[in-house]
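Supplementary Note 3. Input sequence used for the single-chain structure prediction.
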Amino acid sequence: MKSTAKIVFGLVMTALLGACVAPKPAAISDNTFATTAAAEPQAQPGRNLYFIPPPPSSLDGQRTVEDVLQAYGPYATLKLASYFAKANVSYPPQKVAFIALKQEKKLELWARDSGEFRFIRDYDIQAASGVAGPKLRQGDEQVPEGIYRIEGLNPNSHYHLSMKINYPNEFDRFHAWQEGRSKPGADIFIHGKASSIGCLAMGDEAIEELFVLTANVGVDNVKVVIAPHDPRVYPLVADTEKLPGWTLELYSSISREIHALSPTVKSVKTGL
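The predicted structure, written as discrete structure tokens, is reproduced below.
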């Protein structure tokens, strides 16, 4: 009995000390990652009849991407397939783009098969700390701005599920080096739950869909663009008195990328 109590206490303390993500994940197949450190107990969804519990062999902190797909894949795929059918895009698509708009607190899902990118749907961003402007250093609580890719999938996140973006990317690292910023920050994720510092918190149900979609498409086929606001509504203008001079170049790049990904935004989203 005492031995059991010690084990339980140890697991609780491990969970409490955890951060947004477990330590560096170990690579598994299909360009995804699975962590081996203990994670917070995962709440049972209970919100639909399609939930399939993970296999008994998948212990807390040890589940794989395949376990997540078995648990959440059927229901998430059912919903995703419906969205894609309405947009006339096959599921799973060949390419996916997530456009995160900080001011609007929206994450847009765009995808394509053999044709151009088409709008599939958007999701509310439940939490994203900071203000307009790029992330510059560790601890500034800023959500990065730029063009990124998904670096890996974490099925054992303390925030239900998470997807790591490759911040700092080459552009971020170059300007950090040029300005002598040795700690530009790291470990930026798109994850579940409704709280975050420097990441994009999407809520559990949304991250299940995004995680399943990314796993099915493959991380190499997913692009993430994060903007201070929607440049299709009004231009991105950098306040160079408060932001680095290179923010002008960054915003120009973000604007071009969003316009290239979503050239038919008005006709697809509003019918106008």
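Residues 60-262 form a domain with the L,D-transpeptidase catalytic domain-like fold (CATH 2.40.440.10). The CA atoms of residues 137 and 184 lie 4 Å apart.
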